[in-house]
Amino acid sequence: MKVILIGATGTVGSIVLATLLQNREIEVITVSRTGKTDLHADISDPDAVAKLFGATGSFDALINVAGDCWIGPFDEMTEDSWYTGIRSKLMGQINLVMMGKAYINEGGSFTLTSGFLSDDPVKGTINYSVVNGGIDNFVLAAATELSRGIRINAVSPGLVLPAGHKGMYAATPGQYPVSHDRVAYAYYKSAFGYLTGQVFRVWEPSTQYLRK
């Protein structure tokens, strides 16, 4: 089974990669922009995405954990700021599906990445919040149109801390970090399970503490 993992060198990508490598029946093709991976591609560049699939050929599953967004105060945003996330994390992932469906094998799966900021935003991350919501709704709609038994889901990770990090980030006060195992299992379930059109949310909303 051939699996393409894009964003393999990041915190989440490394977690997913370690889990995939535990299954000897899986051939993992790792992809990043500049890291030590099998192939390189910037998903914000459609030509780079096309070249990526030309290099990989057919595959059984694609997992993407790559994609950038603009970070900063809403009052300082420009139209170009918005397009940072639209071109990279949103259209980059949509293009992976649009181009990748010509290469994916029957019964294969696409797993995209959104994130908790669509439902539990913090200051300075409005670009992430809007783009993540778009990804969640894209997989819901695309699942109704993909043929040949191809599945598509998104994983919405919570706050994922690098190994060894202690405490919480000042930018996300009170946001409880999720375990690496929970994140890994969500991606594995999405890629190799049976559901489609789903958003696997791996986080607990901060508002849970306000409930009686």
TrEMBL record:
InterPro entries for this protein: NAD(P)-bd_dom_sf, SDR_DHRS6-like, SDR_fam
Listed SUPFAM superfamilies: NAD(P)-binding Rossmann-fold domains
CDD domains documented for this protein: Lin1944_like_SDR_c
GO molecular function, one term: oxidoreductase activity
Gene3D superfamilies: NAD(P)-binding Rossmann-like Domain
The entry's keywords: Oxidoreductase
Entry similarity comment: Belongs to the short-chain dehydrogenases/reductases (SDR) family.
Name used for this protein in its record: Short chain dehydrogenase
Source organism of the structure: Deminuibacter soli
